[in-house]
Amino acid sequence: MSIKIGVIGLGYVGLPLARLFATQYDVVGFDING
């Protein structure tokens, strides 16, 4: 079974969190800068 994680908002918290999860899981990040 493959766990996939989505992170919405790749700012101060989201980007490091996505990188941490990416060490173990498939991760997709989404961000709108505006």
The helix tally amounts to: 1
Average per-residue pLDDT, rounded, comes to 95
Radius of gyration: 10 Å
Roughly how much helix do the residues carry, as a percent range? Answer: 25-40%
Uncertain segments of ≥5 residues (pLDDT<50)?
none
The computed structural class is alpha+beta
Strand content: 25-35%
Number of strands: 2
Order of helices and strands: EHE
The domain tally reads 1
Strand order of the largest sheet: 1-2
Protein name: UDP-glucose/GDP-mannose dehydrogenase family protein
InterPro entries: NAD(P)-bd_dom_sf (IPR036291), UDP-Glc/GDP-Man_DH_N (IPR001732)
Domain UDP-glucose/GDP-mannose dehydrogenase N-terminal: 4-33
Organism: Flavobacterium aciduliphilum
Blueprint of the fold:
Elements: E1 4-8, H1 14-22, E2 26-30
Structure in words:
By secondary structure, the chain is an alpha+beta fold. The chain has one domain (1-34). Helix content is 26%, strand content 29%. It is built from 1 helix and 2 strands, in the order βαβ. The chain has a two-stranded parallel ribbon with strand order 1-2. It is elongated and about 35 Å long. The mean pLDDT is 95.
Give the gist of this structure:
The protein has one domain (1-34). The chain has one helix and two strands; from the N terminus they run E-H-E. It has one helix at residues 14-22, and strands spanning 4-8, 26-30.
Question: Which key terms come to mind for this protein?
Answer:
alpha+beta
